[in-house]
Each structure stands twice: as structure tokens, then as C-alpha cells.
């Protein structure tokens, strides 16, 4: 493609050059299995250990509390399904705005889904009431750190207060996949027992997930076999991916403060630009409540699919909600849970920024978005 | 031209897309996601979307999926279910063409700057001496689908293309084989996408509406049995009425919704001289009033034999009904079925509507 403007960092990010560089030797000369017993294996093992130490430090947990998985979804499922000896109806609780990776397994097992407020944050009174009413013991409460569609940041310290008081025996987990670039993970792990991360959301490779689990909690593994990850996740380590993940997270954390202000300024520029050019457009959540990387808009009088098509044709990559197996856009369960009227939700648009976003991207996006909305709002030809 | 090709994942739309690319058009493939529920056939399963996408990749064109499932539910599924509660048997595939392919998709295509929407239907669009657009049967009469696209107006036809309408099905398959398209040997889809072969209409409707038990009587009004679901009984039906075997063949000749009574009789009791057609759309609206008194060919099912009839009454209002008199007595048609009128040449579509309850 000639030139394109990538504003879909919440879906995935381009890999950081330093992460590619870090992983390359492990794709070629350092190919050994870190579980082996020879010198090459030891070399690989050292790389794995160092990566784990680095990730643990950046997450504010101990190395033994880090479990490498294959993706954010596996991390979520591992903790939801593995925290208790048996998953019983009512033993899992989450918010209605969770990513499908949390929501679907919990609904599948008859768990409780707690409503969210108009900004997408879990309703703490409802959470408290739910935990109080449940008669069976709660094994896991899962509340996302940052919503992947609208970018809303959850006040996890307050969630933790409620959970510790009402369900002291429960494991408090947070899907922090969208938080890594913008939030201090150490603060998050100080409040919760477990977090999920996904490497490709912060400049790492696809195919690597991280699960942290506070010492003292046991885990029934999803995958049994060679006993890797202290018997909590069997399967040969994706060493190159793990090394790249550690480097990507290191770079992300090192640049975080700078990136937060840089990307926030870009988002403000984007919002000011489109506000100036396009009428009938509103932010779904007050940007002050969201991470800097996500701008979620509802555009009046247009349909997301049509808008995304025109943006795509003009080389602007954006998103609306999650897609189903066929690739079709599904109506957003997040917006529905927030109480956004279906008519407004029809014009949903998520523009998400990241480490490669530039002012030129923003200015181009404003121009293309303005033209596309104008085209879609023109008088309909057909009667 | 900038053409949007509706790709179902079948061989016809795959080849249609290929022909459009060959003709030098700027082509984008679109698969509509219509039905999100259980399905084992029809047009929009995930594996069909995979096929459509892979063909698009092979042709080097963009492919997108549009989710029209809410519109499909509102304009096809809900009316289909509701019609059954009134003893009407609609053709959902025709309603899907009317409301989705040639309304929703066409509208979106125009909005997105496309000059035309193409589909893989076996039908042809042409122009007559007066410059009016005409709709003809596909060249392959055995595969002709003009019946299911009869609702197209002049305005629609200006924007619709049927690239495989000039080809026989064998030619279509040969082109697909020659180009190595993965859909080359895929069987034709036959069934309604939201009705599964295992559960059928009964299971689908049973989940959505309560069934009423009905009395079954003969033409003299004498009771001969009961049927569990009045909503599933269709005019002309012979099997599944739970009547004892032996004796002469008995058909459903009348259904009284108000008293929940099904009348069974001999085949000749189904014969009628007239058929009333509701909600008639015309390919060329200017010809509606002129139809009065003309002899036309009338087709009452997707591959039914066209029969001659005289247009006996015409309401000149667009979208209104008409009454046709059969040249020879014909079997009554279940209300809701599409009735399509053709010129006596049996090639050109005049228009069509839905069978009203017979009088």
C-alpha cells in the first residue's frame, strides 16, 4: 500500500525495532530449548530467566509470579478457569464491559456480570451488592484496567477495596492488556492479585502473553505436559517471543511518561481537529477518563461500517468494535452496557494511537475523516 | 466503473467477480453477514465467507464483510415468522433480495461511491428500443433466477449488474475451473439460510411462535382428524396431516385461520380460474395500467412452469395489486408466494407480487 495512517494501536501495535533486534538471535543461532540440559540450552535458559526477571520488575511482581503464555486470552482463561479446583456457577464475577476473553468464559460458566456506569467503569455499588448476595464462594473477580474500546481507566484501588471487603477469599484479576502503554503496572499489581498482558499491544510480537499471579494462589493449569512455568503452563517456551516481549515492555516503560504526554497532545490535536471540522460528533467517554491512546467517538448520521470502509479506502486504519468470526463488525457490547443508545452506537469509531503515531498521521486522519463523514451525510440518491 | 460485487462464497458470484475484474472494472467484493443463528446451508456461514475472501484474494480485489444481521432480522426473519401466524407462506430469499441485496446494499454502495452492485444471479439486464431497462431470464433457463430478482425497478436496474447471466452454469463452472477458483465445484445453495435441514421450518418457527392445533375436515365439513400446527400447513400440502392412509389422495384445499380449520379435498378442489396478486412491483412502472386485458405468462415458484393468464383487473397505483384470470384452471397458490409476470416470449420480466388468499 502506498501511504497509510495507522490509528488502530489498540488492535495491535507495530513491533519495536529494539524488540525485533532482541529476538533475532533466538530465531537463528540461539535456537535451543531452554528446558534442555546442554550448554546451548543453558544459554537459552539464561535468556528466559533474564526476560522473566525484567518483566517481573516492570510489573512490580516477583519472577516466580510471572507466567508466560501465548496471548492475553490464554492468560485470562488460565486464571479464570484455574484459580479454583472447580468452576461453579456464580464463582466468577466480572464487569459487563470486559473484553470477550473474560466475558465469554465467565458467561459460559454461569458467572455474574456486573453493570458499568455511563463511562464504562464497573458500578462499584452493584459489584458490592453482587458479592454480598452471592451465596457460593467467589473464586475470581475480574475487572479490566483499561477498556479496550472506549479507553476508560478503571480505579482498581477502589475495586480492590470492595472485593477485599465483600469477597476476601476471591482472587482479584485484571485484564490489563490495554494498560501496558499508559499505566504504571506496579500500581496495578499492588491492588490486584493477577494481571494479563499481551505483548503485541506494546510493541512486542504476537503470540506472547503474560500472566502474573500473586504468590500463595495456586493454579490448575490449562495445559499440562512438560511442566514448564512451574507446572502452571506446559509447552516449549517461545523464547524469541519472550525475549522480544521483555525488551518491548522495557522500552515501553522507559518511554512511558514521555509517550503519555506526547500521545495525549496528539489525541487532543485529533479531537480538536475533528470537532472543528465535523458537526454532530461526540466523545463517548470524557478523554480525561481515558488512556491517551484511545479516542472513541460517536458520529451522528453515519454507520461505522461505511465510515471504516471509506477510511480504509483512503488508507486510514481505524476500528469500531470487535469483529466476529466472519470478519463482520458486531454491535458493541461495551457501548450497550454503558447505555449508549443503539442509534448513537451505530456511528461508533475508535481511533487509537501509539508509539509510531505522528502529527502527520493526525492531520491526515482529520482530513480523511472529515471528507468521509461529509460524503456519508450527503443527500441520499435513492428514495 | 467502480463495482461492488456481492460475494456469497458460491461459484456464481466468484466467477462474476472474476469477469468484472477482466472487464477492467474497479472491483470490491462484499460478503453480507445476514444470519447469526444456527445454519447449515444458505449463503452466509463463516466457511462461505472464507471462500469469498480467498477468491477475492486470488483475484487481487479488496474484500469486506458488512454486518446486516439486524436488517435481515427486521426485514426478512421477523416478517417471515409473523406471516406464518396469518397462514401466509412467504419466500424469504426473495425478501432478502428485495430488502438486503437490492436495497440496503445498493444504498450503501451508492453512498460509498460505487457505480453499480453486481451479484451472481442468473438473470440479464438490457435496454429496449425506448431506452427503458429490461430484465430478462438468464441464458441458462434451468438456472434462471429472474423470478427471485423480479422486484428490480428501472432505478435499481440502472445500478445492477449480473455478469454471469449470459452464461450457462456449465460455462460458469468451467471458468472457475480454468482460473483455479476454489469454489469451482461447490454445490449450489438451495435452502433458506436460517432453516436447518435437521430441524426444518417446524423447529425454527416452534422457537418463535406458539402453534395452534387445527381441525381437519373434508369438503363437506365432516371432521377427519387434527393437525398440531396450523402455522405449518400450506395450501396444496398432501403429506404430514396425520390422516389415515389408503383411499384417494387428499390435499389441503382451504385453510381458515379464524376457526383454525384445515379443509382437505381432491386435487380438483384446488383448481381455480383466478389468482389475485398483491403488492405488484413493475420493472417499468409506466406499463402498469397498460397491462389490463393483456395475456401474460405467470410463474408461481422459483422453477415453476409459466402459465398463460389474462390481466383482468389492475389498480394503477404503484405497488398495488392485480387480478389474473388463468387461460385454463390452475392449482391454487399458497398465499404469500411470489407471482412473477413475464412477456409471452417467456424471456422478459414484467413485474411481480405476492399471491393473495384465493377467492
Summarize this entry quickly:
The complex is a heterodimer of chains A (383) and B (359). Chain A has twelve helices and twelve strands. Chain A is an alpha/beta fold and 383 residues long.
Number of domains of chain B: 3
| Strand-pairing-aware structural class of chain A | alpha/beta
Shape, per Cα inertia axes of chain A: globular
CATH superfamily of the largest domain in chain B: HUPs
What share of residues of chain B is helical? Answer: 10-25%
Q: Please give the largest β-sheet of chain B.
A: 6 strands, antiparallel, barrel
Biggest sheet strand line-up of chain A: 2-8-7-6-5-3-4
Summarize the largest interface: chains and residue counts. Answer: A-B, 23 and 21 residues
The poorly predicted ranges of chain A are none
**In CATH, what is the homologous superfamily of the largest domain in chain A?**
Type I PLP-dependent aspartate aminotransferase-like (Major domain)
Shape of chain B: globular
What is CATH's topology name of the largest domain in chain B?
Rossmann fold
Describe it.
The complex is a heterodimer of chains A (383) and B (359). Chain A has twelve helices and twelve strands. Chain A has 383 residues and is of the alpha/beta class. Chain A folds into two domains: 5-12 and 255-377, Aspartate Aminotransferase, domain 1 (Alpha-Beta Complex), CATH 3.90.1150; 17-251, 3-Layer(aba) Sandwich (Aspartate Aminotransferase, domain 2), CATH 3.40.640. In chain A, strands 2-8-7-6-5-3-4 form a seven-stranded mixed β-sheet, with helices on both faces. In chain A, strands 9-10-12 form a three-stranded antiparallel β-sheet. In chain A, strand 6 (171-175), helix 7 and strand 7 form a beta-alpha-beta unit. Chain B contains seven helices and 17 strands. Chain B has three domains: 2-178, Rossmann fold (3-Layer(aba) Sandwich); 215-265, no CATH class; 272-355, Translation factors (Elongation Factor Tu (Ef-tu), domain 3, Beta Barrel), CATH 2.40.30. In chain B, helix 1 (11-22) packs across helix 6 (169-178). Chain B has 359 residues and is of the alpha/beta class. The mean pLDDT of chain B is 93. In chain B, 23% of the residues lie in helices and 28% in strands. Chain B is globular and about 65 Å long. The chains are: A alpha/beta (383), B alpha/beta (359). The A-B interface holds A 303, 305-306, 309-310, 312-313, 323-331, 375-376, 378, 380-383 and B 31, 33, 36, 44, 46, 49, 53, 64-67, 69-70, 106-108, 110-113, 155.
Amino acid at each position: 500500500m502506498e501511504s497509510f495512517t495507522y490509528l488502530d494501536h489498540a488492535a495491535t501495535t507495530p513491533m519495536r525495532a529494539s524488540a525485533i533486534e532482541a529476538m533475532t538471535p533466538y530465531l537463528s543461532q540461539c535456537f535451543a530449548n531452554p528446558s534442555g540440559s546442554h550448554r546451548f540450552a543453558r544459554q537459552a535458559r539464561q535468556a528466559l530467566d533474564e526476560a522473566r526477571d525484567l518483566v517481573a520488575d516492570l510489573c512490580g511482581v516477583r519472577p516466580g509470579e510471572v507466567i508466560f503464555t501465548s496471548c492475553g486470552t490464554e492468560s485470562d482463561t488460565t486464571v479464570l478457569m484455574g484459580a479454583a479446583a472447580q468452576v461453579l456457577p456464580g464463582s466468577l464475577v466480572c464487569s459487563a464491559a470486559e473484553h470477550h476473553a473474560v466475558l465469554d468464559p465467565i458467561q459460559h460458566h454461569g458467572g455474574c456480570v456486573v453493570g458499568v456506569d455511563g463511562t464504562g467503569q464497573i458500578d462499584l455499588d452493584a459489584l458490592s451488592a453482587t458479592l454480598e448476595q452471592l451465596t457460593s464462594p467467589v473464586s475470581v473477580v475480574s475487572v479490566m484496567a483499561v477498556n479496550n474500546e472506549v479507553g476508560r481507566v478503571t480505579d482498581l484501588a477502589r475495586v480492590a477495596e470492595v472485593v477485599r471487603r465483600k469477597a476476601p477469599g476471591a482472587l482479584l484479576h485484571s485484564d490489563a492488556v490495554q494498560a501496558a502503554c499508559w499505566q504504571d503496572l506496579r500500581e496495578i499489581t499492588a491492588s490486584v492479585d493477577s494481571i494479563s498482558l499481551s505483548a503485541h499491544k506494546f510493541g512486542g510480537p504476537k503470540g506472547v502473553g503474560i500472566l502474573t499471579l500473586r504468590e500463595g494462589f495456586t493454579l490448575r493449569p490449562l495445559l499440562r505436559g512438560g511442566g514448564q512455568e512451574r507446572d502452571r503452563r506446559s509447552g516449549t517456551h517461545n523464547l524469541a517471543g519472550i525475549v522480544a516481549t521483555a525488551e518491548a515492555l522495557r522500552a515501553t516503560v522507559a518511554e512511558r511518561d514521555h509517550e503519555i504526554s506526547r500521545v495525549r497532545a496528539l489525541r487532543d490535536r485529533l479531537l480538536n481537529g475533528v470537532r472543528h471540522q465535523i458537526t454532530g460528533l461526540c466523545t463517548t467517554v470524557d478523554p480525561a477518563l481515558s488512556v491517551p491512546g484511545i479516542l472513541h467517538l460517536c458520529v451522528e448520521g453515519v454507520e461505522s461500517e461505511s465510515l471504516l470502509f471509506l477510511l480504509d479506502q483512503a488508507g486510514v486504519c481505524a476500528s469500531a468494535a470487535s469483529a466476529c468470526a466472519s470478519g463482520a463488525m458486531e454491535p458493541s457490547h461495551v457501548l450497550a452496557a454503558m447505555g449508549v443508545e443503539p442509534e448513537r452506537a451505530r456511528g461508533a469509531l475508535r481511533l487509537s494511537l501509539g508509539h509510531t503515531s505522528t502529527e502527520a498521521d493526525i492531520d491526515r486522519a482529520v482530513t480523511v475523516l472529515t471528507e468521509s463523514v461529509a460524503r456519508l451525510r450527503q443527500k441520499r440518491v435513492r428514495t | 466503473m467502480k463495482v461492488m460485487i456481492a460475494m456469497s462464497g458460491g461459484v456464481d458470484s466468484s466467477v462474476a467477480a472474476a469477469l468484472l475484474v477482466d472487464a477492467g472494472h474497479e472491483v470490491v467484493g462484499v460478503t453480507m453477514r445476514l444470519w447469526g443463528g444456527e445454519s447449515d446451508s444458505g449463503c452466509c456461514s463463516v466457511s462461505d465467507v472464507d471462500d469469498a475472501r480467498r477468491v477475492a484474494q486470488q483475484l487481487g480485489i479488496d474484500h469486506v464483510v458488512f454486518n446486516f444481521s439486524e436488517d435481515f432480522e427486521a426485514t426478512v426473519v421477523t416478517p417471515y415468522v409473523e406471516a406464518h401466524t396469518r397462514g401466509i407462506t412467504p419466500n424469504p430469499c426473495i425478501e432478502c433480495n428485495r430488502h438486503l441485496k437490492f436495497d440496503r446494499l445498493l444504498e450503501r454502495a451508492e453512498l460509498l461511491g460505487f457505480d453499480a452492485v453486481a451479484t451472481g444471479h442468473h438473470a440479464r439486464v438490457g435496454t429496449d428500443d425506448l431506452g427503458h431497462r429490461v430484465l430478462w431470464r438468464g441464458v441458462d433457463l434451468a438456472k434462471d433466477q429472474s423470478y427471485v430478482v423480479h422486484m428490480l425497478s428501472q432505478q435499481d436496474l440502472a445500478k445492477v449488474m449480473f455478469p454471469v447471466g449470459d452464461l450457462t452454469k456449465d460455462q460458469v463452472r468451467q471458468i472457475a475451473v480454468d482460473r483455479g477458483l476454489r469454489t469451482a465445484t461447490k454445490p449450489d445453495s438451495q435452502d433458506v439460510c436460517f432453516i436447518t435441514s435437521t430441524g426444518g421450518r417446524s423447529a425454527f418457527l416452534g422457537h418463535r411462535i406458539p402453534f395452534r392445533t387445527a381441525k381437519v375436515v373434508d369438503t363437506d365439513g365432516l371432521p377427519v382428524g387434527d393437525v398440531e400446527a396450523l402455522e405449518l400447513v400450506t395450501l396444496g400440502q398432501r403429506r404430514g396431516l396425520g390422516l389415515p392412509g389408503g383411499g384417494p389422495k387428499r390435499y389441503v384445499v382451504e385453510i381458515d385461520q379464524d376457526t383454525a380449520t384445515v379443509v382437505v379435498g381432491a386435487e380438483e378442489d384446488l383448481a381455480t380460474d383466478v389468482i389475485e396478486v398483491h403488492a405488484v412491483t413493475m420493472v417499468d412502472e409506466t406499463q402498469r395500467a397498460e397491462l389490463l386485458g393483456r395475456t401474460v405468462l405467470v410463474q408461481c415458484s422459483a422453477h415453476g412452469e409459466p402459465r398463460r393468464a389474462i390481466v383482468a383487473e389492475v389498480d394503477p397505483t404503484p405497488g398495488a395489486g392485480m387480478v389474473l384470470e388463468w387461460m385454463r384452471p390452475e392449482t391454487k397458490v399458497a398465499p404469500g408466494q411470489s407471482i412473477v409476470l413475464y412477456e409471452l416470449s417467456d424471456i422478459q420480466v414484467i413485474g411481480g407480487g405476492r399471491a393473495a388468499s384465493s377467492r
